[in-house]
Amino acid sequence: MIEPMAPLIERYDAFLIDQFGVLIDGNTAYTGAVDALAHIAHIGKPVVILSNSGKRSEPNCDRVVSFGFERSHFKTVVIRRACVSDDQKGGWSCDQPQCARYGSLPKRGHVSY
Predict the structure, then answer these.
(1) Strands of 15-18's sheet in order across
(2) What is the pLDDT of residue 89?
(3) What is the DSSP letter of 29?
(4) How distant, in Å, are the alpha carbons of 36, 39, 49, 54, 66 from that of 4?
(5) pTM of the model
(6) How far apart are CA 68 and CA 29, in angstroms?
């Protein structure tokens, strides 16, 4: 599984990977997902996992680990509500230090992945 992905993994410096539907199906980790994340971490590429969960980051990190992923193989889980629109200021606010902004974001609505 890793070999066909090697050119893609080498091409990027870091990875934002969605939790549901990419790493896990809700009941179990997808075949090869644990090994793929381990490989990315082993070659020194940081991984941040994305989630639409209503829970904070740490419970989501624990959930990912419960599916067999090593906690050291990803930096954190960024949840959708961590980055919310602040329409009154016309910008964006973030309630977690892990929430980073890259490029320009829309003026209204929520960040979606």
Answers:
(1) 15-18, 47-51, 76-79
(2) 47
(3) B
(4) 11, 13, 21, 34, 27
(5) 0.68
(6) 7
Which amino acid would we find at residue 70? E
- Rounded distance between C-alpha atoms, residue 32 and residue 103, angstroms: 32
pLDDT in tens, 75-94: 999 886 555 444 444 444 45
Measure the CA–CA gap between 77 and 59, rounded to whole angstroms.
Answer: 9
CATH second-level architecture of 2-82? 3-Layer(aba) Sandwich (3.40)
Contact 15, 39 (CB under 8 A): no
How far, in Å, CA of 42 to CA of 45, rounded?
Answer: 8
What is the mean pLDDT, run by run of 10 residues, along the chain of 113 residues? Answer: 78 90 92 93 93 86 96 90 48 46 39 36
Q: For residues 56 and 47, is the Cβ–Cβ distance under 8 A?
A: no
Question: How many Å is the Cα radius of gyration of the chain?
Answer: 15
